[in-house]
Amino acid sequence: MAGGGARTAARVTGLAPSAIRRMAVGAPEDAIDLALGEPGWPLPAVAREALATVSAEHGTLPYGPNASRPELVAAVAEVHGQLNGIPTPGADRVMVTSGSQAALFALFSAHVEVGSTVLVPDPGFVSYGSLAHLCQARAAGYPLGPGGVLDADALVATLDAQPDVSLVVLNHPANPTGGVASAAALASVAEACARRGAVLVSDEVYRELWVGERPAGLHEAAGPDAGIVLGSVSKAYGAPGLRVGWAVGDPALLAPARVVHNAMTTAPAGPSQRAATALLRASASVLEEAREHVQVRWETAGRAAPGLLARADTARGSAGRAGASAARAGFYLWLPVPDDVAPADTTDFALRVRDTSRVTTVPGDAFGPAGAGFLRVSLGGPLDDLTEGLGRLAPWCEA
Ligand SMILES: Cc1ncc(COP(=O)(O)O)c(C=O)c1O
To answer: Which residue range or ranges hold the Aminotransferase class I/classII large domain (predicted)?
Structure first.
């Protein structure tokens, strides 16, 4: 029972606040935050200029079209086509949303039947399970390969073992593991989902943040009709606070999701749309700079805590190409806890580190049972924090 005798809807009870929030509550005031999953480099100049232009204008600030400003839709379409080597999708294939989070909400609401099953990566981004729960569906985790890479055979085996799968989520490069997907694995999963009539959603919000080797994408690997691909200005474009994301794919799958998104929030804020358009139009340079920021962070981690990087690289099976020369995707270090910490004690360990050494990470089991025994360490934040935070963490985990 909530206050005043009001009842909380059953589909909401059971949803816990995110582990990131739980780790923040009660943290020492001077704790360094290596838990937040967002870029810590400055908002690119083109976005700052667009926001300044909006604020200098003398006039109204209208809602704008439900489908978002046409020039933003066109910019998303053009960049998506270029980055995937496919023709520029039509406007009916692009749904602009309030962050990719709202795209997920709208797609789940539109396609996940009550009582059906949603396949989610284990470990995986916590929202996938929460959204399945909100839709009164069952989230079933599928296992990933070493280093969190997409193991298509394991996913298809999980799919074939479930009677009623409404939706399958892929996330690559992955939060929290940084794992990627090969083009062949993506094509194979797309084929299996089409055969089973499951909607395939490929969350690719970290894709352009690579070092050394660009990861594959679903539409690039399997064509523009293979599922829905999600993107966002929040990670690679350095602008999480704008709250602009998108979904690209089959218009018939997007149409009911648009209805949900309109009911929920109409469209992203007008100034955000203007800034997002500017970012997308400057895509080539903005993404190149973002990759430099990410590379600097991995190099900083290598200098500040080589033992941590080596430990994570050994666990992800990249001992041959570890350290500075390893290919990286995204900005998360997926770090095994020390050998003498039982996987079931991962959260206790993360809290001990937080309270003793004043550095906050996310315990891996927050992302699913297979995450037990790992910490997610974000390298995305300010560089000074990163050096200091990893320095505090290293003595706990380098053994
Ligand atoms: C894998 C993944 N997908 C989607 C999101 C949501 O991002 P946004 O709504 O800011 O686009 C996040 C945010 O952390 C994420 O890690």
So the answer is: 30-393
